[in-house]
Every structure is written in C-alpha cells, then in structure tokens.
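Appendix B.2, paired examples.
Example (i):
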Amino acid sequence: MNYIEIYCRNILSEQLREIVIARLAEIDFESFAEAENGVYAYISEKEFSEKNISDEIEKIAGDLKIGFTKKIIIDKNWNALWESNYEPVIIAGKCSIRAPFHSQDKNIKYDIVIEPKMSFGTAHHETTAMMIELLLNEDLKGKNILDMGCGTGVLAILCSKLGAEEITAIDNNEWAYKNSIENIKRNNITNIHVFFGDSSLLQNKSFDKIVANINRNVLLQDLPVYSKSLKNKGILLISGFYKKDLPALKATAEKNNLRFIKYTSKNNWAAACFIR
C-alpha cells in the first residue's frame, strides 16, 4: 500500500502547527512529523483527496501564505525515507526505542527495536513518549493487557518486557497491523497477539489494563467499550489528544464508571490515567 506525504510549509509557530495537525487528523491523516517551518503529514493513497486538504489549509491560512507540496511514498521506498532522519529515543533513562541499524545501549534496561515504516509509534512524538513513561511506573507483572491502536507495536512490546502475561494488540490500519507483527518478531516476543480491526473485537473480553494512544474522537467514541472491557480496579491509560481536550474525556470517562487519577502533558499534548 502506497502513502501520500504532504508538506505544509510556512507554518512558523508551534500553535499553528498543532492546529494544522489537528485539522488534518480530522480528514484521516495518520502520521505527522513537525519541521522547523512546517508539518509533514501522511495518509494512505486511497484516502487522499487534494480538494479536502486545500479546503482545510484555506480555512486555517487566512492571510498567511501557507501552502503544501505532495509526493507518493511507495512501500518499498519507505525505509530509505525514515532511515535518513530517524534517531533513537531514550525515555526516563530506562527504555530505548531504536532502529535495527542503531547499536544497543547496554546501560538501558528495556531495549526495543522498531522499524516504523508508516506506522505511528516511535516515541519521537510526545504522546508515545508519555505513554511509555506511564507504563514504566505501572506494575504489569502477570497482567492481561490491551494495546488499542497499536501502531508499531512499541507499547505492547514494552508491556511484555515489563512482565505482562498476555497482550492483545489491535489496529484498524493494515500497514500498522503488519508492522506490529514484524516488530514483535524482531524483539523476540511471544506473548502478544495482534488483530486487524477496531473496538468491535473487544466484545466479551476483559483486561487488567488498557492502553490506547489514538486520538480524541476515537477515544470519546470508545471509552464506553474500554470501560466494559476493564476488570474491576482495572487501569486505563490514554493519549493522542491535546491538554485542552482532557475535560471532555474526563466527563465521558466518569459517565462510564472510570475515575480520573492523573495526567501528564508535553507541548500541549496530554496523557491520562483512569481506574474502573
């Protein structure tokens, strides 16, 4: 499956970059990378609509000279693209997320090797980094975990390394689904089961903990399902949303028997923890 990369240029402020990312996410763009003066965004070729992008940019731009360029990212060429600018990430001095061509840091306790392709989840983005930090402070030993919207599989892999007994990983993007399977094998993990689909797969299933790094709209829609799928005293960790969205998520969570515990934020992105 091919993807389209667009580069929105002349976006000089962090606030405007956040607005552009949020608006493009609403029209099914899946992955983003911020540049000094712009934003890179990626969408599957079959979902791409130049008119939709032009309309969104026009709404945002006003008197600003925001424009965009596009190019096709062919499946076989993706590795060369991300290898040119992908750097390893170390979270809390405990967890390293690196590419296969990076050497291992022997001083890091949890070493995860990720070949991201087009999938979301390399820990470069604030939301993934915050989820990793939250997981590092959770007791996962012997627990049954769900990673919803697993992307590269990085959170599921970390859960396994933290002692989880069994992990279910789900994504509705075919590229992410296949990428998770590849990365799980690359890290020699055997207790993660990956499924292609959405929250409809959760019927009659229950978990000790659920992690969901998706986006605001999907989280609001699926919080009732997550609550039903959590065991009593089960923990829900969510991210993929802005700090300003937290009140709406808290309100929906509380309506579904989920009690807010804490949140953390980085660069206006947020992650939150709830208990059932």
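Example (ii):
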Amino acid sequence: MNPCNLNQLGVDRESRWAVGHFNIHNQEFTRAVVRAAEQERSPVILAVGMMSIKYMGLAPLISSCRLIAQETEVPVAVHLDHARDLEVVRRALDLGINSVMFDGSSLSFEENVAKTTEVVRMAHDCGATAEGEIGIVPHGTARVSTEDMTDPSRAVEFAGKTGVDFLAVSLGSVHGMKTAGTSLNQDLLKKLHEQIQVPLVLHGASGVVDDHLKAAVANGIRKINVNTGLKVVLKSFLRTRLVDEPDSDLLADLDQGMGAVCTAVVSKMRLFGSSNKA
C-alpha cells in the first residue's frame, strides 16, 4: 500500500493519538524518519516543504520518499507542506504525492476558500488527501495574537465549503522556533474539536512544550507537524562531532547524525501516542 494518503494512516477525528508529520530535506532525513517509524511500529508522514524543494528539487524529493516508503511495511504518507501555488500542487500530484496542504492563511477568507476548494478537487481526483489552514501560525514571532488564532465559526464554514480532509488551526504555536517554550490555547482547541467534523492539525510543534502537545492530542489534535526541531538536533550533533572527532569520515558523521534525528523522532512518536498503531 505504501506510500498512502492521510486517510489510510489509521488516524481519524475519534482517535486518541496523533500522527507525526516530519519535514524531510534529503534522503538521509527520510531514512531516519522511516527508521524511527519501523522501530516504533508507527504510521508516519514524510513532509516535503518549500525550502526543501528549493534545496533539492520537487521530483527528486518525492521520488526518494516514494521509493523509501515502498521498502517498509509501516504506513507512510508523502505530503506536500505549505504550498501556496496551485501549479506546485499540480506538479506534486502528477509526481505521485499522496497528500497536499494548501496554505491560504495569508489570503482573504473568500480567496482561501476558493483556492483550497480547488486543491481539494485536484487531490481527490488523484486519490490523494488535502489539508487546508484557517487562522495564522506566524513565523519567528514571540506570541500569537488572539486575532491570529482560529475562529470556530469561520473554521466550521471553511471546512464545510472546502471539503478538506484535515484542517490546520492556530492555537498559539509559531513556526521556526528552535526551543520549546510555547503553550497552546486548549480551551479553543476543545471548541474546535467539538464543532469541526474533520481531524485537526497543529503546525509549529517544535516550539511547543511537551505537556501542551500531550494535552493537545487529548483535546483533538490528530496530526502534528515537526520541522525545525529536527534540524536543531542534527546541527547540534554535528557541531559536537566535528569538534570532538575532526578526522572522522563524513559518511560516519552523517550516519550518526541521522541516528540522533531518528532518536528525536521516536521520542515525538511516543509523545503523540502513535507508537504501535501501525
């Protein structure tokens, strides 16, 4: 079945666990994430983001993810993250990606609905799933304003009009945080989970403290995105490794660095409750 779409991972609105979405940037990252999924018997999402596409290319990233996913028996989805261009979505679907996320959070509500609806149609025509976003998860700011957070009535309208399979919401998290210190509005999350009939997604999880991530799963989050935190793990490992063992072989450095990434992914899977769900 691999790779599969998000609806085939086993998580849904009524689950009591969340699937981890881990941004990958090259083949090494992909193998580290899949190795963690195999170790934990956990479904997993390999996420292809815009910066990584610029770094490696859309076709090479999707192709490597698909090939590596086919080598394992745990459910693996390959997902396009934060697309803002419908042509990129179209190209990714043509290359066989299984899930797409359109980020229309910077658009007017009406334009976000219109473009997300088109993405949903394109994805479903290809047997893929589609994620949309309502509310704003900012980049690199210290706090999220109340105005940025997801309005429940707007979210219900958005989900109903677009037909998204998963919905990303804003609860207080911030993209790109290198340390965890952010809390989430759990009361807002409870309201959203009660009123919205599709699984909810948390972006910017690298900056959220573990207790709030665990509570978010209990309160309705079913997909959790991790990106920056894994970059920090690898960079920290390599910084120490290259000082302590300057004459080591580069491939050994990378292999051990990816071991550190794998360990970090395992920790997240256990926190999200996805271990032994494959």
